[in-house]
Amino acid sequence: MKTEILAMILAGGKGSRLGKLTQDIAKPAVPFGGKYRIIDFTLSNCINSNISNVGVVTQYEPLVLNAHLGNGESWGLNGMNSDLTILQPFSSNEGSKWFEGTAHAIFQNIDYIDRIDPEYVLILSGDHIYTMDYEKMLEEHKQNEASLTVSVLEVPFEEASRFGIMNTDETNRIVEFEEKPEQPKSNLASMGIYIFDWEYLKEVLLENKEEDIEMLDFGQHVIPTYIERDKKVYAYRFNGYWKDVGTVESLWQANMEFIDPENELNMRERDWKITTKHQVSSPHFVAENATVNDALIANGCHVSGEVNNSIISTDSEIGEGAQIIDSVIMSGAKIGKNAVISKAIVGENAHIGESQIIKGNEKIAVVGNSEMVGVCLDEAQ
């Protein structure tokens, strides 16, 4: 049987604006919310949308990401009629296969997509925090008899110049695409989520090789080509929670919003679960003299200090007398006695020594993965 839809998750982003947090891991593998990694949201959206064939395109520092993905078992993507495939750059007789853009990454994996033989290809990013039913988007794509559907989100007009903007007619058909316009005509920003009819997309991408036409990026090259050729290109309007966590500030803000039980993500919704690769840890322990207010404490944590409006991720340790305020402590981190962490992100397996002070102000303070701050030799051991 022909596969109706294949999801291709672009997960090779370097995430350079996250600084220390992505020095040795790809952005989609950055921890979030105490026990998740960013890519979990996109993968879980696929499963909850009944999409059972997923290709994950990796590139920058893929080791942690690949280990997290495994064979897709954590998301139920390793069954008889389901599959998760990790797609990395490779070399052939034609030379290097390093991906040069979003569309180029799909072009380089045409053979894989043809093997799955889908009618539609859903292009996704692996580095956004959101929940979305892709089945509804596909349904609208079919109703419009579209060749391409682009998911869009209304943004404040004053911020529209930061995005690729879709200008539409009264039927939501896209008539013009503007890449980060100085004076935007609309506020419909592309979310980087696309549904293509595969056969025509493949035809367009192959022109890159046959006619030497540059077709590297969906926003800059592919979408304008579709519009110029008068293909049916429609906008799908998304109204839910969506966060691009591409900066330290936005990552911190999304984590802080995640603490609120009334958060739009509604993580307690049983019909739309966010799944991750679980590691075996003991239940968390909160000591008698510890205080915890408005916080998420993951499994394996040992809390002996004060935690306020913060996330303490799996297997972290908060020493006696330590204060954690408005902060994100990532997995395996150790905070020494009487240390003060405020408005900060502390990376995985970092170690903050006794009585150290890490405080953000206008900017969020960041301690990198496995970084040691004020730790003497005895403490490190």
From TrEMBL:
It catalyses: alpha-D-glucose 1-phosphate + ATP + H(+) = ADP-alpha-D-glucose + diphosphate. GO terms for molecular function: glucose-1-phosphate adenylyltransferase activity. Pfam families: Hexapep_GlmU, NTP_transferase. Its EC number is 2.7.7.27. Keywords: ATP-binding, Carbohydrate metabolism, Glycogen biosynthesis, Glycogen metabolism, Nucleotide-binding, Nucleotidyltransferase, Transferase. It is an enzyme of class 2 (transferase). It comes from the Bacteria. The keyword Nucleotidyltransferase applies. Residues 288-358 form the Glucose-1-phosphate adenylyltransferase/Bifunctional protein GlmU-like C-terminal hexapeptide domain. Alpha-D-glucose 1-phosphate binds at residues 164, 179-180, 190. Residues 7-257 form the Nucleotidyl transferase domain. The keyword DNA damage does not apply. The record marks 59, 98 as: Could play a key role in the communication between the regulatory and the substrate sites. InterPro entries: ADP-Glc_PPase, ADP_Glu_pyroP_CS, GlgC_bac, GlmU/GlgC-like_hexapep, NTP_transferase_dom, Nucleotide-diphossugar_trans, Trimer_LpxA-like_sf. Pathway: Glycan biosynthesis; glycogen biosynthesis. Involved in the biosynthesis of ADP-glucose, a building block required for the elongation reactions to produce glycogen. Catalyzes the reaction between ATP and alpha-D-glucose 1-phosphate (G1P) to produce pyrophosphate and ADP-Glc. Homotetramer. Belongs to the bacterial/plant glucose-1-phosphate adenylyltransferase family. HAMAP family: GlgC. This is Glucose-1-phosphate adenylyltransferase. It comes from Candidatus Vagococcus giribetii. The gene is glgC.
